[in-house]
Write a structure and sequence with these properties.
alpha+beta; CRO Repressor; 2 domains; four-stranded antiparallel sheet; 9 helices; 4 strands
Protein backbone atom coordinates (compact mmCIF):
# COMPACT_ATOMS: atom_id res chain seq x y z
CA UNK A 1 0.00 0.00 0.00
CA UNK A 2 0.93 3.60 -0.51
CA UNK A 3 2.79 5.38 2.35
CA UNK A 4 0.68 8.53 1.73
CA UNK A 5 -2.49 6.57 2.47
CA UNK A 6 -1.18 5.52 5.88
CA UNK A 7 -0.04 9.06 6.62
CA UNK A 8 -3.51 10.44 5.74
CA UNK A 9 -5.20 7.79 7.91
CA UNK A 10 -3.03 8.12 10.98
CA UNK A 11 -1.28 11.50 11.06
CA UNK A 12 -3.55 14.31 12.32
CA UNK A 13 -3.42 17.58 10.36
CA UNK A 14 -3.73 19.70 13.52
CA UNK A 15 -1.88 19.60 16.83
CA UNK A 16 -2.93 17.14 19.53
CA UNK A 17 -3.67 20.01 21.94
CA UNK A 18 -6.01 21.62 19.40
CA UNK A 19 -7.66 18.21 18.89
CA UNK A 20 -8.40 18.08 22.63
CA UNK A 21 -9.47 21.71 23.12
CA UNK A 22 -11.95 21.80 20.20
CA UNK A 23 -14.26 18.99 21.50
CA UNK A 24 -14.16 20.44 25.03
CA UNK A 25 -15.34 23.84 23.79
CA UNK A 26 -18.05 22.31 21.60
CA UNK A 27 -19.19 20.04 24.46
CA UNK A 28 -19.54 23.00 26.84
CA UNK A 29 -21.36 25.04 24.20
CA UNK A 30 -23.84 22.23 23.51
CA UNK A 31 -24.52 21.56 27.22
CA UNK A 32 -25.31 25.23 27.82
CA UNK A 33 -27.31 25.57 24.58
CA UNK A 34 -29.45 22.50 25.20
CA UNK A 35 -30.06 23.62 28.79
CA UNK A 36 -31.24 27.02 27.57
CA UNK A 37 -33.41 25.40 24.89
CA UNK A 38 -35.46 23.67 27.60
CA UNK A 39 -36.14 20.21 28.91
CA UNK A 40 -38.55 19.39 26.12
CA UNK A 41 -35.67 19.31 23.64
CA UNK A 42 -34.16 16.36 25.48
CA UNK A 43 -36.99 13.85 25.44
CA UNK A 44 -40.17 15.14 23.85
CA UNK A 45 -38.89 15.51 20.31
CA UNK A 46 -41.15 16.47 17.47
CA UNK A 47 -39.91 16.13 13.86
CA UNK A 48 -38.61 19.72 13.85
CA UNK A 49 -36.58 19.17 17.04
CA UNK A 50 -35.11 15.98 15.58
CA UNK A 51 -34.04 17.80 12.41
CA UNK A 52 -32.39 20.52 14.51
CA UNK A 53 -30.49 17.97 16.63
CA UNK A 54 -29.32 16.02 13.59
CA UNK A 55 -28.15 19.11 11.74
CA UNK A 56 -26.61 20.46 14.94
CA UNK A 57 -24.36 17.41 15.15
CA UNK A 58 -23.29 17.89 11.55
CA UNK A 59 -22.76 21.61 12.08
CA UNK A 60 -20.41 21.19 15.03
CA UNK A 61 -18.50 18.30 13.42
CA UNK A 62 -16.01 20.60 11.73
CA UNK A 63 -15.62 22.60 14.92
CA UNK A 64 -14.56 19.38 16.65
CA UNK A 65 -12.25 17.94 14.00
CA UNK A 66 -11.16 21.08 12.13
CA UNK A 67 -9.44 20.34 8.82
CA UNK A 68 -8.37 16.93 10.07
CA UNK A 69 -9.97 13.85 8.52
CA UNK A 70 -7.49 11.32 9.88
CA UNK A 71 -8.62 8.31 11.87
CA UNK A 72 -6.30 9.35 14.69
CA UNK A 73 -7.83 12.82 14.77
CA UNK A 74 -11.34 11.36 14.90
CA UNK A 75 -10.37 8.98 17.71
CA UNK A 76 -8.74 11.79 19.70
CA UNK A 77 -11.84 14.00 19.25
CA UNK A 78 -14.27 11.21 20.19
CA UNK A 79 -12.15 10.16 23.17
CA UNK A 80 -11.99 13.76 24.38
CA UNK A 81 -15.80 14.03 24.21
CA UNK A 82 -16.27 10.77 26.12
CA UNK A 83 -13.71 11.70 28.78
CA UNK A 84 -15.20 15.19 29.13
CA UNK A 85 -18.67 13.72 29.59
CA UNK A 86 -17.38 11.21 32.14
CA UNK A 87 -15.69 13.97 34.15
CA UNK A 88 -18.72 16.28 34.04
CA UNK A 89 -21.17 13.52 35.06
CA UNK A 90 -18.93 12.38 37.94
CA UNK A 91 -18.36 15.97 39.06
CA UNK A 92 -22.08 16.84 38.99
CA UNK A 93 -22.92 13.65 40.87
CA UNK A 94 -20.95 14.87 43.87
CA UNK A 95 -22.05 18.53 43.57
CA UNK A 96 -25.85 18.48 43.86
CA UNK A 97 -26.38 22.26 43.76
CA UNK A 98 -24.40 22.62 40.56
CA UNK A 99 -26.19 19.59 39.12
CA UNK A 100 -29.55 21.27 39.78
CA UNK A 101 -28.29 24.42 38.09
CA UNK A 102 -27.23 22.48 34.99
CA UNK A 103 -30.13 20.00 34.93
CA UNK A 104 -32.85 22.30 36.24
CA UNK A 105 -35.75 21.49 38.53
CA UNK A 106 -38.83 19.37 37.88
CA UNK A 107 -41.66 21.52 36.51
CA UNK A 108 -45.32 20.77 37.30
CA UNK A 109 -47.55 20.53 34.24
CA UNK A 110 -50.68 19.32 36.08
CA UNK A 111 -51.34 20.03 39.77
CA UNK A 112 -54.34 18.56 41.64
CA UNK A 113 -55.91 17.64 38.31
CA UNK A 114 -55.60 21.20 36.89
CA UNK A 115 -53.43 22.08 33.91
CA UNK A 116 -50.58 24.51 34.62
CA UNK A 117 -51.07 26.40 31.36
CA UNK A 118 -48.31 28.94 31.97
CA UNK A 119 -45.81 26.14 32.53
CA UNK A 120 -47.00 24.32 29.41
CA UNK A 121 -46.49 27.54 27.43
CA UNK A 122 -43.06 28.10 28.96
CA UNK A 123 -41.96 24.56 28.05
CA UNK A 124 -43.73 24.70 24.64
CA UNK A 125 -45.72 21.54 25.36
CA UNK A 126 -49.06 21.38 23.59
CA UNK A 127 -52.11 19.73 25.07
CA UNK A 128 -51.90 17.13 22.30
CA UNK A 129 -48.28 16.31 23.21
CA UNK A 130 -49.21 16.02 26.89
CA UNK A 131 -52.15 13.72 26.07
CA UNK A 132 -49.89 11.59 23.88
CA UNK A 133 -47.34 11.24 26.68
CA UNK A 134 -50.16 10.31 29.09
CA UNK A 135 -51.45 7.66 26.67
CA UNK A 136 -47.97 6.15 26.43
CA UNK A 137 -48.01 5.72 30.22
CA UNK A 138 -51.41 4.05 30.19
CA UNK A 139 -53.76 6.95 30.96
CA UNK A 140 -56.86 7.12 28.76
CA UNK A 141 -57.28 10.86 29.31
CA UNK A 142 -55.86 13.79 31.23
CA UNK A 143 -58.97 13.69 33.46
CA UNK A 144 -57.45 10.64 35.20
CA UNK A 145 -54.27 12.51 36.14
CA UNK A 146 -53.74 14.21 39.49
CA UNK A 147 -50.19 15.38 38.83
CA UNK A 148 -47.84 15.55 35.85
CA UNK A 149 -44.22 16.69 36.16
CA UNK A 150 -41.67 17.50 33.49
CA UNK A 151 -38.50 15.95 34.89
CA UNK A 152 -35.07 17.58 34.42
CA UNK A 153 -34.14 14.94 31.84
CA UNK A 154 -37.19 15.79 29.72
CA UNK A 155 -39.43 12.84 30.64
CA UNK A 156 -42.95 13.48 31.88
CA UNK A 157 -44.08 11.62 34.99
CA UNK A 158 -47.81 11.13 35.61
CA UNK A 159 -49.61 10.32 38.86
CA UNK A 160 -53.25 9.22 38.59
CA UNK A 161 -56.10 10.73 40.60
CA UNK A 162 -57.26 7.33 41.68
CA UNK A 163 -56.15 3.83 41.06
CA UNK A 164 -56.25 2.94 37.40
CA UNK A 165 -59.23 0.81 36.29
CA UNK A 166 -56.97 -2.24 35.96
CA UNK A 167 -55.72 -1.75 39.52
CA UNK A 168 -59.30 -1.31 40.79
CA UNK A 169 -60.42 -4.53 39.07
CA UNK A 170 -57.41 -6.39 40.47
CA UNK A 171 -58.24 -5.20 44.00
CA UNK A 172 -61.90 -6.18 43.54
CA UNK A 173 -60.86 -9.68 42.41
CA UNK A 174 -58.56 -10.02 45.43
CA UNK A 175 -61.37 -8.93 47.76
CA UNK A 176 -63.75 -11.47 46.19
CA UNK A 177 -61.15 -14.23 46.51
CA UNK A 178 -60.65 -13.34 50.18
CA UNK A 179 -64.41 -13.49 50.74
CA UNK A 180 -64.63 -16.87 49.01
CA UNK A 181 -61.71 -18.16 51.12
CA UNK A 182 -63.45 -17.05 54.30
CA UNK A 183 -66.71 -18.71 53.20
CA UNK A 184 -64.90 -21.97 52.38
CA UNK A 185 -63.13 -21.89 55.75
CA UNK A 186 -66.47 -21.35 57.49
CA UNK A 187 -68.03 -24.27 55.58
CA UNK A 188 -65.15 -26.58 56.51
CA UNK A 189 -65.48 -25.63 60.19
CA UNK A 190 -69.28 -25.92 60.23
Amino acid sequence: MDAGLWRDLIHPDVSLLEKIIRPILVYLFLVVSLRLAGKRELAQLNPFDLVVLLTLSNTVQNAIIGNDNSVTGGIVGATTLLVMNYIVVRFLYSHKKLDRLVEGDPEPLIENGCLCEEQLKKELITLTALEEAAHKQGFASLDLIDRAVLEPGGAITFVGKQPQPEEQRFQEVLERLDAISRELAAIKRG
